[in-house]
Amino acid sequence: MKILVCISNVPDTTSKINFTDDDTKFDTNGVQFVINPNDEFGLTRAMWFKEKQGATVHVATVGEATTEPTIRKALAIGADEAIRVNAAPTDGYFVAQQLAEVIKSGGYDLIIAGRESIDYNGGMVPGMIAAMLDMNFVNTCISLEIEGENATAVREIDGGKEKIATSLPLIIGGQKGLVEESDLRIPNMRGIMMARQKKLNVVEAVGGTQATKDVKFERPAPKGAVKLVDSANIDELVNLLHNEAKVI
Amino acid sequence: MSVLVYTETEKGKFKKNAFEVASYANAVAQQLGTTVTAIAFGADNAEELGTYGVSKVLNVAEASLSDFNARAFALSIAQAVSSEEAKVVLLSSSTDSKFLAGILAGKLSAGYAPNVVAAPETTEPFIVKRTAFSNKGFAHTQIDTDIKIVGVSNNAFGVVENPTSADVAAFSPQINESDFSTKSVEVDKVVGKATIADADIVVSGGRGLKGPENWGLIEELAEVLGAATACSKPVSDLGWRPHSEHVGQTGKPVASNLYIAIGISGAIQHLAGVSASKVKVVINTDPEAPFFKAADYGIVGDAFEVVPELTEKLKEFKAQNA
Ligand SMILES: Cc1cc2nc3c(=O)[nH]c(=O)nc-3n(C[C@H](O)[C@H](O)[C@H](O)COP(=O)(O)OP(=O)(O)OC[C@H]3O[C@@H](n4cnc5c(N)ncnc54)[C@H](O)[C@@H]3O)c2cc1C
Ligand SMILES: Cc1cc2nc3c(=O)[nH]c(=O)nc-3n(C[C@H](O)[C@H](O)[C@H](O)COP(=O)(O)OP(=O)(O)OC[C@H]3O[C@@H](n4cnc5c(N)ncnc54)[C@H](O)[C@@H]3O)c2cc1C
């Protein structure tokens, strides 16, 4: 089985989000970039396929040279080879087109992407790829088993879960549940050393349309001070929720 | 030209988010000087959408399309887009709508802006405001493609009545057998309980509750309020509660009217996922807990004392206001 894990390079979850250039750009100053958490679960699941069933695992990112530490980390965790499409990932549509090209030329059976990239929260890249390549697709995927050509997936739905039967080639939008938090791998010294020898293929972008453009950013309005209610006076909270906030 | 909105149903009845996206669609149609067409799959009372300004409903009655299938639904919506010559397509932020959104955008070569919180700022160019960076910011996104897809955030625009009469027409999309190659084999869903996605109120518990045996506190409070229950990430990682209840940046997003956080410290990743909720109440023993800075109302106190009393007071309140 040939697996491609799509990796978005995102600000660490603790990052403060600021904007520059008259609020038209995300300020990357002092921001630590990491593998998108949803993709990290997917990468670990891919390693399990490799170890238990035999698979080749490639990782791909669409991004400029600055994303290489993130992709090297994926190699250190155990991916066999990496592909970087050398372009600024301007929007989800552009990224999906680039990844669709990588998938077409690489002949992958299984594509593991994340449900959502935690930076721009698009939640669109895997679905777009599925449409562009007419592939089977399962989103919000929390479990995936593969036997031969057949795949059994579980996806999260509002209020529960749904079991899905499908087949390869398949793309998923994965999240926690594919593996647990405690299963995530931290690169060790040997992995980091080995990663240096592994292939990181840089390919140029092909055409590509930017369908959307973020023209301006804004930070949320600062929050007013909290109203504290004495624990001996809980009636007051009920009163505030009813008469002031009008939510009960 | 019209504006097309996908209105979701559950067992033939419209979901609340259907009325919200229909209301949003109506606002867009007014800006563009056109009308709203809705597409629904097996709606029992399709004409109900008229209340929210929808003047035409394409109701799909095919038995093969009675249950959600992302690809088949996306292709059906794409066919409705072309038959209606729609230029703007509206979707909700439910898990199902987000599932089909990417497929639809790929098929229509359309730009898609998700998590949109307000009516378009301008339609020429077409710019919408959406949340980004897990609620730590907003982006004003310009969609440049001929067809534009907008995913409307839950509970941001609201339900707005705009009564008109809706013509209901049967719609029969052409879908091949091969488009059903992902098949649902089993659905495991809580019935009769509010879900985090739709609930007006969410009651959430953190590690401060000490163990799963104490969740009765959370459930009783949720029951009085008709609320969904949720939890912080460590609580689900520890197996105290199912993963489906984990909310935050890496869990489910919450955009309820009221979010009550009990024994949750308010870590940045937790706040990112719940800050779209309109009113936040925090109950925590530690006055320095970061959540107090992000909350509207707070009680510094022990959950084991405060919560049962709050539940009692709310019961009295509900009894008086019933
Ligand atoms: C400096 C900088 C500025 C940027 N500015 C913008 C901007 O203004 N607007 C904007 O929309 N995007 C911008 N991006 C790109 C953004 O990081 C995403 O790569 C891209 O927009 C897709 O985001 P999404 O939220 O739609 O992805 P989603 O659809 O939420 O991502 C889902 C999954 O798709 C895969 N995926 C997503 N992006 C990539 C990628 N680049 N490479 C490989 N796999 C990927 C991952 O598996 C991810 O889990 C910028 C990136 C950088 C570095
Ligand atoms: C990559 C990444 C992603 C993450 N994503 C998420 C996410 O999506 N969602 C999420 O929730 N977290 C997430 N986290 C974890 C986050 O950083 C915090 O560790 C977590 O939110 C803390 O959970 P908690 O508030 O339940 O526990 P704690 O931080 O331990 O807080 C417990 C609180 O309970 C209070 N308390 C104790 N006893 C009582 C009592 N008797 N009555 C009332 N209050 C009491 C304490 O004062 C304390 O404030 C993520 C972390 C990382 C690194």
From TrEMBL, chain A:
GO molecular function list: electron transfer activity
Keyword field: Electron transport, Transport
All residue ranges annotated as the Electron transfer flavoprotein alpha/beta-subunit N-terminal domain in the record: 23-211
Pfam family, one: ETF
SMART domains: ETF
Membership in a protein family: Belongs to the ETF beta-subunit/FixA family.
Protein name (Swiss-Prot/TrEMBL): Electron transfer flavoprotein subunit beta
Organism: Poritiphilus flavus
UniProt lineage: Bacteria, Pseudomonadati, Bacteroidota, Flavobacteriia, Flavobacteriales
Automatic annotation (TrEMBL), chain B:
Domain of life: Bacteria
Keyword Mitochondrion: no
Cofactor binding: number and manner: Binds 1 FAD per dimer.
Assigned keywords, A-Z: Electron transport, FAD, Flavoprotein, Transport
An annotated GO BP: fatty acid beta-oxidation using acyl-CoA dehydrogenase
SMART domains for the chain: ETF (SM00893)
The protein's required cofactors: FAD
Binding site for FAD: 207, 263-270, 284
Molecular function GO labels: electron transfer activity; flavin adenine dinucleotide binding
Transmembrane segments: none
UniProt family annotation: Belongs to the ETF alpha-subunit/FixB family.
Protein name stated in the entry: Electron transfer flavoprotein subunit alpha/FixB family protein
Native source species: Poritiphilus flavus
